[in-house]
Design brief:
By secondary structure, this protein is α/β, with parallel strands linked by helices. It contains 8 helices and 8 strands; from the N terminus they run βββαβαβαβααβαβαα. Bound molecules: iron/sulfur cluster (SF4). The site of iron/sulfur cluster has 11 residues, from loops.
Length: 253
């Protein structure tokens, strides 16, 4: 099977555990205002590659990726779910650790869709799930998408799969960086035992130049970047929410 691939990075250090071979797929149904990769939005902008080609290329770098593996990010990889399933299935045949970096956009509880997600999860070791906001209306404004898809995907991953889950959250002023939203996010994710890590990422405006080069208007013009210190503060608030959820609603496991 062929998939649309935007680019490949062979020594990724921030896309899962260890050093990783990172595949950026093309196509994304969201339009996040802070997206750094608007050049991945259009599916057809990518180059067609087969899953075998990617795995064979991976093998060249395998000696350097001992504690890492294969990460698929985007764009939104779930936009090509059948291709990713095949790619991950080949990877698992060769004992490669697989990680899916996703927003969960496109998840649905409809029977035939759930079946596809279930099959994919069988070959996925880790899901890095980016929750872009915890309020439905702000989520729609920030991304153009539907928060319910992300949260249903999270519940599905926790309850119906063996995947490990890492949560990612970008903080930016005027959207996610306020106590109420951060606490609410923590309180929501605090109910899920499969969550093994929380990555709080400060917004930065380095993507602005890319928009200019593509002739697009940058939606967050003049919004200041955030610091590592801001991310540490935000993380503490999210963790407080998670702890409170644990106390008020202890998991059954
Ligand atoms: S999900 Fe990712 S690729 Fe898609 S618009 Fe948002 S930040 Fe960009």
């Amino acid at each position: 099977m062929q998939g649309y691939i935007h680019s490949i990075e062979t020594m990724g250090t921030v896309d899962g555990p260890g050093l990783r071979y990172v595949v950026f797929t093309s196509g994304c149904p969201l339009r996040c205002k802070y997206c750094h990769n608007p050049d991945t939005w259009d599916m057809k902008s990518g180059k067609l590659m087969t899953s075998e080609e990617i795995i064979n290329d991976f093998e060249q770098y395998r000696p350097y990726l001992k504690n890492g593996g294969l990460t698929v990010t985007g764009g939104e990889p779930l936009a090509q779910i059948d291709f990713i399933r095949e790619l991950f299935s080949l990877a698992k045949d060769r004992g490669i650790h697989t990680c899916l970096d996703t927003s969960g956009a496109g998840f649905s509880n409809k029977k035939e869709r759930v079946y596809k997600f279930q099959k994919l999860s069988e070959y996925t070791d880790l899901v890095m799930l980016d929750i872009k906001h915890i309020d439905e209306e702000v989520y729609r404004d920030l991304t153009g998408g539907n928060l319910a898809e992300t949260l249903s995907f999270l519940a599905f991953l926790n309850n119906k799969t063996d995947c490990q889950i890492w949560i990612r959250h970008v903080i930016l002023k005027g959207y996610t960086y306020n106590t109420e939203s951060l606490y609410k996010l923590g309180y929501h994710i605090g109910q899920y035992k499969r969550i093994k890590a929380l990555d709080v990422l400060p917004y930065h405006n380095m993507g602005e130049k890319k928009y200019e080069s593509l002739g697009l208007e940058y939606p967050l013009k003049d919004l200041e970047s955030m610091s590592k210190e801001d991310a540490i503060k935000a993380r503490l608030i999210i963790e407080a929410g998670m702890r409170d959820r644990l106390i008020h609603n202890p998991p059954r496991y």
